[in-house]
């Protein structure tokens, strides 16, 4: 008996890659909105309560990265994502419609972080099934770019739309976005090709302890975790500075957008013909040099230029980490690897924001933050230059 092929099976691999990229970007768009939304929703409880909700969401997301990564190695991706999607939609409706006390508000933020569909982890471990070589690197570069696009869209969504529809309206919009994006992802997911790729390798499920041990006995995982942690720690340092230095919400959104535009363009352009470590190092050194100018002069215009340069330097490094991670680990371990990398990003950003906010609140000075900024970027330069265990490819690149 003949069966018609599924829609995803009829789509060429390149088309499915694009669908996974766009669907993942849609599903993950609300994540960039929550930090602002929780501040608005938590205002009646005070800014400390709102900040606690953001911290709990970040903690939940970090837990999710680890748990989802492991679950995706044990169960079908579609099943894991569909279950988490149903839970997430229920939580969004509860947070948007119910009259919540502060404890329930915090619990909702934490659970939302834990349950939110990990399409980014699924997609990053699936791209190698559909493409390889230079095309795979371009795919990871676009993955990073589309995440940055959400940082351009999210502030506009909150600043322009929230006064018109209120918190409940924003939650309704976010619920629809998650439902549409996740449905698209589940339809586009190349289940047949993924299963075939797993059959070609060693697909015996590993016990949890052995799976995690297999990842951590590979020394390059430490390089990748430190690299993305440094990148997101710097992001965490900078965000409170933007909010403190710029009083007008529209200008805050513009500053974040300038930063994101640099990241969006650079991720695709810098790695267009392969990973070139000299190019990555040069980008970070330029960002460090340009960042000296607003620190020295206090110029708002130069601050925007520094943000653009910083975005241009950071995102190609993230794309390089994703690409090299996909080559360093077996297919069955990649969801765990990308889960670890994602959790490291979230924790590092949260720590950076906490330190930066505490310094600004206690001293009102940016100089200690600038010192940390340059130290961490120096660590990044050293990592890429030394290239331990050839984590970033050939030592001659």
UniProtKB/TrEMBL annotation:
Leader sequence segment: none
GO molecular-function terms, A-Z: transmembrane transporter activity
UniProt xrefs under Gene3D superfamilies: MFS general substrate transporter like domains
InterPro entries: MFS (IPR011701), MFS_trans_sf (IPR036259)
Membrane-spanning parts: 20-40, 46-72, 79-98, 104-123, 144-164, 170-192, 221-245, 251-271, 280-299, 305-323, 335-360, 366-386
Keywords: Membrane, Transmembrane, Transmembrane helix
Entry superkingdom: Bacteria
Cross-referenced Pfam families: MFS_1
Protein name: MFS transporter
Annotated source species: Agromyces bauzanensis
Organism placement in taxonomy: Bacteria, Bacillati, Actinomycetota, Actinomycetes, Micrococcales
């Amino acid at each position: 008996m003949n069966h018609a092929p599924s829609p995803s099976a009829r789509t060429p691999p390149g088309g499915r890659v694009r669908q996974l990229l766009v669907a993942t970007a849609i599903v993950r768009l609300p994540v960039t909105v929550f930090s602002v939304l929780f501040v608005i929703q938590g205002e009646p409880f005070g800014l400390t309560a709102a900040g606690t909700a953001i911290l709990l969401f970040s903690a939940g997301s970090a837990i999710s990265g680890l748990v989802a990564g492991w679950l995706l190695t044990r169960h079908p991706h579609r099943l894991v994502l569909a279950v988490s999607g149903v839970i997430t939609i229920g939580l969004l409706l509860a947070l948007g419609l119910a009259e919540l006390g502060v404890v329930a508000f915090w619990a909702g933020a934490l659970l939302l972080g834990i349950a939110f569909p990990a399409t980014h982890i699924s997609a990053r471990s699936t791209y190698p099934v559909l493409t390889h070589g230079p095309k795979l690197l371009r795919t990871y570069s676009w993955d990073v770019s589309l995440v940055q696009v959400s940082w351009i869209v999210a502030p506009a969504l909150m600043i322009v739309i929230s006064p018109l529809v209120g918190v409940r309206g924003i939650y309704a919009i976010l619920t629809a976005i998650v439902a549409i994006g996740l449905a698209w992802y589940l339809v586009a997911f190349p289940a047949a090709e993924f299963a075939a790729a797993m059959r070609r390798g060693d697909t015996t499920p590993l016990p949890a302890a052995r799976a995690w041990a297999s990842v951590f006995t590979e020394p390059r995982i430490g390089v990748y975790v430190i690299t993305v942690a440094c990148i997101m720690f710097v992001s965490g340092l900078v965000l409170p500075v933007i909010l403190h230095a710029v009083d007008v919400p529209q200008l805050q959104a513009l500053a974040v957008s300038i930063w994101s535009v640099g990241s969006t363009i650079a991720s695709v352009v810098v790695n267009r013909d392969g990973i070139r470590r000299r190019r990555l190092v040069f980008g970070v050194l330029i960002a460090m040099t340009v960042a000296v100018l607003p620190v020295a002069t206090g110029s708002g215009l130069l601050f925007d230029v520094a943000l653009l340069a910083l975005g241009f330097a950071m995102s190609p490094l993230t794309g390089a980490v994703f690409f090299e991670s996909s080559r360093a680990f077996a297919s069955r371990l990649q969801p765990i690897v990308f889960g670890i990398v994602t959790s490291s990003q979230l924790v590092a950003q949260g720590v950076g924001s906490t330190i930066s906010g505490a310094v600004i609140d206690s001293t009102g000075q940016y100089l200690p933050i600038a010192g940390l900024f340059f130290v961490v970027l120096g660590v990044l330069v050293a990592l890429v230059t030394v290239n331990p265990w050839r984590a970033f490819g050939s030592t001659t690149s």
